[in-house]
Specification:
The protein has three helices and six strands, in the order H-H-E-E-H-E-E-E-E. The chain starts with a helix and ends with a strand. The chain has a six-stranded mixed beta sheet with strand order 2-1-6-5-4-3. With 117 residues, the protein is an alpha+beta fold.
């Protein structure tokens, strides 16, 4: 599997705002996630539901910027800035590193988010 190509493709989908689609396409069924706020998911379905809820709460996308992606073996790290206005009138501005571990089938089995502020 060419992890660099897969990570680049996934990041391109995320950069277009299709976060749910990226999870559906690239996550393994048993993929786990964790973020710097202590939230975790234990499988693909939980992550799809989490991202659908999140995407549904966005009123306006002000910007999604993909800065860099690095790959070492079966691990990738992508740097993004997300800027959203939410339907509850709050604002989200995240600058984060998304670390992914990929399996031999080219699917994400672990994703972790780090605050890069």
């Amino acid at each position: 599997m060419d992890i660099k190509s897969l990570a680049t493709e996934m990041d391109g989908i995320i950069g277009k705002g299709a976060i749910v689609d990226a999870v559906k396409q690239f996550f393994a069924e048993d993929a786990t996630t964790s973020d710097y706020n202590g939230l975790a998911t234990t499988d693909k379905q939980q992550m799809v539901e989490k991202m659908e809820g999140f995407a549904g709460a966005i009123a306006q996308v002000n910007g999604i910027t993909h800065h860099h992606t690095i790959v070492d073996g079966n691990v990738s790290a992508s740097e993004f800035t997300f800027d959203f206005n939410m339907k509850d009138d709050s604002k989200i501005y995240w600058h984060e590193i998304i670390r992914r571990v990929w399996n031999n089938d080219g699917k994400v089995v672990e994703e972790e988010y780090f605050n890069a502020q």
